[in-house]
């Protein structure tokens, strides 16, 4: 297994530094209300005007809950969304991964302080959720469709697992286990317990990770139970909704009715038992959090029902419902999946969190299947949608990640008003920024995996990794300037006498690669290509230098013609990086651009923090001066198309919206 | 002026007969609740589940109001939308135009009976609106942003004007004048009166028409006042909204909050004085009803401010915000206009009523400007969106008229759920069906206009028309099989010795035409082409036979490249008829079709009630079996496109959705 990895890649180090130096301290100030931030309206359809626009309440809520627990008469006000606690947990999880990467005593002190506050808020029976503790204690575990109680618990547990692994301290883990025990006491097949799960999946994955750390079988069983109870009673959530309405309880999402057309059983993945769910329906983040747990649950339990459910979801999402950028979720209504091949580029949701979840899903599938295509998905989502979720300076975040944007249309067309063309500093529903932070800070966990006596290289990241492979200590230095260059050198700095087996993912976009071992070209006989991995036939030994060169050239990609939105268009990729055009480089009306026959690139170190740009001698369609009009100057008899030459400049999609506000587009017209 | 016109065109007679024999009796049963109808949810965003789904209450409401007026303790229940009364008025208006076309004593009796009931409900001071009379008498004229009181009044007045002109009876006109007088007593510049107008324009046009009939100057002044007060106080409607919230009053649209993001000043065209409104904003029907009144007001008053406002609106709508089908309103959110060149084909609203209103606007502009391009717009909206608003059997109606539809996507994508792919029998908000009925039944009023001593032929409709031109009696028989054939023969059956001047609109789509007078070809010297009309230099006299032949051939049309949704695509027109492809003829995945080089047509009398169909030897793009995948089988390295030959069948757009439910598309790919 991997023991430690140090990321040295300038590309990733820079992003991790921005997160460690900018985002995490910024988020600390936000969750502690140390600074006023301009909080953007969410895109959930909820009414954020019901929330204070200048206060997050995150940490204060725990203090209020603690005071209430102590019996103080006026403990203070609990504010924010029902799932506000999770912002603290995701911040702590990002801190945990940061502490894995670097010493940061001040940050550590802040985290320990926050963990104390959280612990003080936890009730004696282990229950922990500031909303229900402070506002509606009689409603605990009764409105699971939207309470986010186990969702928040899951984020606490994931953070505690990461924090324990990074620091070795136990305090946070104790809180987590106590909370998990409370859930175990309340949910399960036994009579008197709740026979259902949370409306927002997350606890399942968290319990599996807690089991991996603690080896406590109860957590594994509970996770398996929560996964398999889902959808057994399709009316489970809707019955709770009806009961809440009968009792005159208020909606847990301000501005949205309890019984709402977007919030039916499929929204919660509960219309059928999981292994019978053949299509990704409902809230995209919920779906991929469920899927991540299904895949990991299958690894840890071998349960065929979990495996089948994960397979069905994987097939439907990857084969029919994913954007080229690794974005998922085609509609803002319920932040949800829609249908097969329905992938509009402009009205897409493509939530940052959903692509983070897709990476979890792909990674957990990869752990069981060792299929490189799953690594391709992971890489596609990471380098495109997830990175696009933040400004290059780490100070602004996207919730929605369109493949086609136009500030004017976002302003005038309400069907596009969820598509922002400036990254706001914070959101009332602030799930995405900390999710992105924990993803990028934990990148080291995605670079390699081990499978018995084999090390598999999944991501290409300049780094130094230490493994313990059945008692054998291995140190592997990976040197690369990926994603801008395609050469990856693996230097075995340390290994036992037996050496080890090694495999590298060869991405599907790579048409040609070459391989050298200690300067000697390796022929096809030296390796086997299997399920997207190149397996070396010989073991690697200390001192070996393996050099893989992936041919990295711009590629034109087309979509399945059943995707109407992309029909007749082409996307430009170079390696995993999806490119786009922006108005600032190419002028307005980007739909009029046609790529040229060439596509040349170069690295520009001054642009957008250093990116490889592509250029094409293309053309721009111009509107003819004259022409026979049909009732309106908008419509004319077809005449030969007129073009003017234009050098089209493409930048990596992840870097869009870091200069002046304007149009952006991924799918382009081909050469006319 | 035109004295009488008899429509003999099989194309139009058939539609008028369906309306007279099917729709009007059907609507009578609906408004009288004589039959249970399956009422579709509206697309306004309102919650029609708050309404009885099987009862319209239209006529009953008047009876209830009359009983309440008589002081009955339990007069009964008033039901339906706040503007439910208008359904009765639009029905009566359609009946009036029907009585112009044919004797129908039974229908006349029903109408007279309904007029009695309406009269019985009218209060002594002239006020008439069943919602406010029965449910909230203390709220009269206080919630004008959404009360529809003057809107309903306008429909009553329009119906009364039409009924009076058709039957010569005065009863209905008396009710109308009494109601207009009530409005005059309550609205106006004088102190103590309301200095504002209705949130939904309609009264303005109605008062102008009432003035035209009665010559009562007060009505003209009141109309002018209501037009010009609009937007003088941009807070007029929003202040009423705030006051209603303060008073704890309920929303007048069930399910929609009083203060709602869709219902701000621009939604009501009240953010600026009308002559400063440079863009069509807000609710599309409101906009065109306003515009129709501005244009007619300009004709009747000569007021330059009205003229300028009408011009600004015309320019913006026609040059930047209209679909090729004459549909307007790009979004279901507020049933509204969005922005310039924003004309999505799939998520469009394109309300039938809005295109009816656009025809009113175009017709009133035409009355003043005599610009054939305005007639072209009128014709485009009439033959495409308006006719598409009903099933060929007259038993189903569209509210929304997409240019691209897919039943699967309408089901799975909530952003498209307003786009129905079957015409429902009725709507909870039933504005469109009776609006369409009155439009088609009044068609005769749009065929000709007179301008001093000239008769202008605007629409090509087989008919016989009688004019009184400064005392001279003229009978003009128009013979044509338009829109399927392009020859139009005008036979002067009666005229005075002086004869008369004559002009014919030559549509912009017509590239070549020929003209014969009494079998002799007329050269270019015999006429003048001016602003879209061909003016004969010589007078026409009794016995003259003028034959105009418009070359009618299929034409490929392209959109302004700034319309992103249509970029690179072509629409097929033949004369004013826009064509479309349907799944039933061409299979699914219509986005994969490419037109061929040819486009041949023939008339099929057995198909869709008799239509001219077009066929093209085109191609269908097929998905290659293999190809280098990028993370998903959805995305592949570009390879040469593969096609299979397919004979593409196109039908007139207005006839879509009359066979099996399936995909439909207007904008098609060109030859590859």
What does this structure look like?
Two copies of one chain form a homodimer. With 672 residues, chain A is of the alpha+beta class. Chain A folds into three domains: 2-446, Glycosyltransferase, CATH 1.50.10; 448-550, Immunoglobulin-like, CATH 2.60.40.1180; 555-665, no CATH class. Chain A is globular and about 75 Å long. The interface between A and B is large, with 72 and 72 residues.
SSE arrangement:
Two copies of one chain form a homodimer.
Chain A: E1 2-7, H1 10-31, E2 39-40, H2 58-69, H3 85-101, H4 105-121, H5 130-134, H6 144-147, H7 149-167, H8 171-186, H9 203-214, H10 217-229, H11 236-246, H12 284-301, H13 304-320, H14 352-369, H15 372-388, E3 404-405, H16 407-412, E4 426-427, H17 432-441, E5 448-451, E6 454-457, E7 463-469, E8 472-480, E9 487-494, E10 501-505, E11 513-517, E12 520-521, E13 527-530, E14 533-536, E15 545-550, E16 554-559, E17 571-574, E18 577-582, H18 583-586, E19 593-594, E20 600-604, E21 611-622, E22 629-630, E23 632-637, E24 642-652, E25 664-665
Parallel strand pairs in A: 2-4, 6-10
Antiparallel strand pairs in A: 1-7, 3-25, 5-6, 7-8, 8-9, 9-15, 10-14, 11-12, 11-15, 13-14, 16-17, 17-18, 18-24, 18-25, 19-21, 20-21, 21-24, 22-23
Helix pairs in contact in A: 1-3, 1-17, 2-3, 2-4, 3-4, 3-7, 3-17, 7-8, 7-9, 9-10, 9-12, 10-12, 12-13, 12-14, 14-15
């Amino acid at each position: 297994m991997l023991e430690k990895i140090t990321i040295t890649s300038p590309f990733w180090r820079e992003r991790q530094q921005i997160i460690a130096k900018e985002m995490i301290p910024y988020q600390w100030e936000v969750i502690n209300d140390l600074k006023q931030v301009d909080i953007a309206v969410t895109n959930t359809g909820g009414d954020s005007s019901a929330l204070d626009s200048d206060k997050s309440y995150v940490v204060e809520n725990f203090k209020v809950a603690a005071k209430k627990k102590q019996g103080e008469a006026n403990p203070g006000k609990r504010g924010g969304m029902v799932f506000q606690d999770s912002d603290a947990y995701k911040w702590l999880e990002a801190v945990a991964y940061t502490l894995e990467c670097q010493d940061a005593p001040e940050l550590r002190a802040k985290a320990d302080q926050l963990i104390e506050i959280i612990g003080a808020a936890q009730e004696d029976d282990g229950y922990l959720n500031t909303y229900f503790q402070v506002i509606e204690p009689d409603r605990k575990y009764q409105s699971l469709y939207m309470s986010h109680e186990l969702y928040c618990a899951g984020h606490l547990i994931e953070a505690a697992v990461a924090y324990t692994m990074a620091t070795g301290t136990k305090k946070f883990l104790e809180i987590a286990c106590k909370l998990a025990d409370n859930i175990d006491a309340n949910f399960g097949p036994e009579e008197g317990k709740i026979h259902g799960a949370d409306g927002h999946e997350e606890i399942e994955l968290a319990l599996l990770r807690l089991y991996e750390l603690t080896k406590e079988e109860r957590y594994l069983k509970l996770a398996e139970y929560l996964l398999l109870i889902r959808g057994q009673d399709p009316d489970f959530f809707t019955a709770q909704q009806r009961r809440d309405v009968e009792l005159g309880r208020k909606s847990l999402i301000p501005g949205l009715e309890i019984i709402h057309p977007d919030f039916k059983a499929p929204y919660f993945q509960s219309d059928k038992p999981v292994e019978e769910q053949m299509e990704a329906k409902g809230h995209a983040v919920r779906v991929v959090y469920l899927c991540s747990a299904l895949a990991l649950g299958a690894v840890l339990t071998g349960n065929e029902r979990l495996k089948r459910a994960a397979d069905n979801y994987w097939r439907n999402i990857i084969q029919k419902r994913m954007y080229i950028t690794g974005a998922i979720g085609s509609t803002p209504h319920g932040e949800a999946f829609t249908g097969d091949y329905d992938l509009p580029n402009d009205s897409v949701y493509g939530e940052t969190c959903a692509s983070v979840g897709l990476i979890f899903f792909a990674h957990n599938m990869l752990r069981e299947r060792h299929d490189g295509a799953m690594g391709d998905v992971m890489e596609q989502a990471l380098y495109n949608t997830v990175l696009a979720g933040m400004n290059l300076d780490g100070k602004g975040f996207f919730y929605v990640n369109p493949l086609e944007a136009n500030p004017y249309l976002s302003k005038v067309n309400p069907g596009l008003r969820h598509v922002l063309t400036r990254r706001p500093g914070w959101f009332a529903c602030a799930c995405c920024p900390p999710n992105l932070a924990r993803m990028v800070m934990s990148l080291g966990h995605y670079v390699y995996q081990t499978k018995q006596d084999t090390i598999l290289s999944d991501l290409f990241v300049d780094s130094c990794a230490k493994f313990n492979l059945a008692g054998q200590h291995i140190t592997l230095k990976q040197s690369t300037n990926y994603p801008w260059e395609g050469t990856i050198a693996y230097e075995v700095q340390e290994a036992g006498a037996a050496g080890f087996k090694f495999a590298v993912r060869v991405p599907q976009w790579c048409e040609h690669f070459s391989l050298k071992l200690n300067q000697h070209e390796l022929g096809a006989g030296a390796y086997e290509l299997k399920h997207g991995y190149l397996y070396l036939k010989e073991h690697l030994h200390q001192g070996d230098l393996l050099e893989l060169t992936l041919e990295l050239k711009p590629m034109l990609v087309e979509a399945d013609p059943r995707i109407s939105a992309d029909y007749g268009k082409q996307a430009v990729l170079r390696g995993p990086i999806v490119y786009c055009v922006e108005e600032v480089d190419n002028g307005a009306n980007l739909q009029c651009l046609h790529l040229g026959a060439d596509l040349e690139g170069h690295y520009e170190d001054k642009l957008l923090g250093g990116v490889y740009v592509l250029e094409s001698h293309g053309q721009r369609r111009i509107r003819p001066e004259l022409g026979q009009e049909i009732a309106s100057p908008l419509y004319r008899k077809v005449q030969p198309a007129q073009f003017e030459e234009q050098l089209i400049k493409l930048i990596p999609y992840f870097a869009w919206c870091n200069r002046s506000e304007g149009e952006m587009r991924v799918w382009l017209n081909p050469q006319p």
